[in-house]
Amino acid sequence: MTAYVGLLDIGQPKPGETVVVSAASGAVGAVVGQIAKLKGCRAVGIAGSKDKCEYVVNELGFDALRELQDRRARARAPDGLPKGIDVYFENVGGEITEAVMQCSIRSRGSRSVD
Question: In the prediction, which pLDDT does 107 show?
Answer without folding.
Answer: 45
